[in-house]
Amino acid sequence: MERIILFDGACNFCDKSVQFILKRDPNGRFKFASLQSDIGKDLLRKYDAPSDIDSMVLIEGNKCYFKSSAALRICKNLKGLWKLLYFLLAVPKPLRDVFYKIIAKNRYKWFGKKESCMLPSPEERKRFL
Q1: Which of 58, 78, 105, 115 could bond 82 through an S-S bridge, CB–CB 3.0 to 4.6 Å?
Q2: Neighbours of 25 (CB within 10 A)
Q3: How far apart are CA 8 and CA 40, in angstroms?
Q4: Distance from first CA to last CA of the chain, Å, rounded?
């Protein structure tokens, strides 16, 4: 099953999140693209994502997940104890998304914005669309 993570390429927190996922996904289950890239924009259109989406998005199989649902589904596929966070999907989405929205709203203020994209290693480059 193909799993694609779309992320805000200008966000330091998002960049660190991608690095975090890469380290904990040794089997290469996830591929990555920035929301701002042509591929990212095409995928968002294909899955009828809201036009104002600016958070991490997970495309898994033929479904698209946003906000906390995306983050928790990603955790399910990481090595280590991160898998255990998947049980939080039992918490009602509106409640989960409150916490996600607080971080998303303040991510530039708290973590800053990037002037340029990260340069992945040659091995990691294969995982970026």
Answers
A1: 78
A2: 17
A3: 10
A4: 16
